[in-house]
From TrEMBL:
Residues 2-136 form the Nucleoside diphosphate kinase-like domain. It catalyses: a ribonucleoside 5'-diphosphate + ATP = a ribonucleoside 5'-triphosphate + ADP; a 2'-deoxyribonucleoside 5'-diphosphate + ATP = a 2'-deoxyribonucleoside 5'-triphosphate + ADP. This is Nucleoside diphosphate kinase. Its cofactor is Mg(2+). Its main location: cytoplasm. The active site is at 116 (pros-phosphohistidine intermediate). GO terms for molecular function: ATP binding; metal ion binding; nucleoside diphosphate kinase activity. Keywords: ATP-binding, Cytoplasm, Kinase, Magnesium, Metal-binding, Nucleotide metabolism, Nucleotide-binding, Phosphoprotein, Transferase.
Length: 138
C-alpha cells in the first residue's frame, strides 16, 4: 500500500465552506480518490484515532475540536502518496506553511489546520481501515 495515504478535511474547513476547494486541489494534484465519506467523530472515536498524541499537551483540545463537527475522511492514491500529500498540505502551523499549500490557503491555526495527512505508509493503512471496510476501498 505504499501508494496510498489517508486524509480528513477537519471541522474548521468544513464549517468555513472549503471542502469543495480542498477536494478540487487534491484531485488536480494527481491523487485518485479510493474511498470517501462525510462523517462525525464522537469524542471517544477522536480520542482513539489520535491515541498516539495522548501524552501531548494539546490532546484534549485536539479531541474536542475533531469531534466538534462533521469531517470528510478519504483514502487517496498516487505514487509516493504519503510524502507528496504532506508536501501538498504544508506545515502543521499554517503560518509556517509554504505558499499555495492547503493549510496556507485554508487553515485557521496550528490546532484547527484544515486537513490531516498520514505520516507513514503503516499509519495510512491503519487510519484508512479505521474509517473504511475492505469492501469500501477500491
Ligand atoms: P495531522 O496528523 O493532523 O496531519 O497533523 P501533523 O502530522 O502535521 O501534526 P501532528 O504533530 O501529528 O499533530 C496532530 C494535530 O494536533 C493538532 N496540534 N495542535 N496546539 C498545538 O500546538 C498543536 N500541535 C498539533 C493539530 O491539529 C495537528 O494537525
Ligand atoms: Mg500527524
Amino acid at each position: 500500500m505504499t501508494n496510498r495515504t489517508f486524509t480528513m478535511i477537519k471541522p474548521d474547513a468544513m464549517k468555513n465552506g472549503h471542502a469543495g476547494a480542498i477536494l478540487d486541489k487534491i484531485i488536480k494534484s494527481g491523487f485518485r480518490i479510493v474511498a470517501l465519506k462525510q462523517t462525525k467523530l464522537t469524542e471517544e472515536k477522536a480520542g482513539e484515532f489520535y491515541a498516539v498524541h495522548k501524552a501531548r499537551p494539546f490532546y484534549g483540545e485536539l479531541v474536542e475540536f475533531m469531534s466538534s463537527g462533521v469531517i470528510i475522511a478519504a483514502i487517496l492514491e498516487k505514487d509516493n502518496a504519503v510524502a507528496d500529500f504532506r508536501t501538498l498540505i504544508g506545515a502543521t502551523d499554517p503560518s509556517k506553511a509554504d505558499e499555495g499549500t492547503i493549510r496556507k490557503l485554508f487553515a485557521t491555526s496550528v490546532g484547527e489546520n484544515a486537513v490531516h495527512g498520514s505520516d507513514s505508509d503503516e499509519n495510512a493503512k491503519i487510519e484508512g481501515d479505521f474509517f473504511f471496510s475492505g469492501l469500501e476501498q477500491f
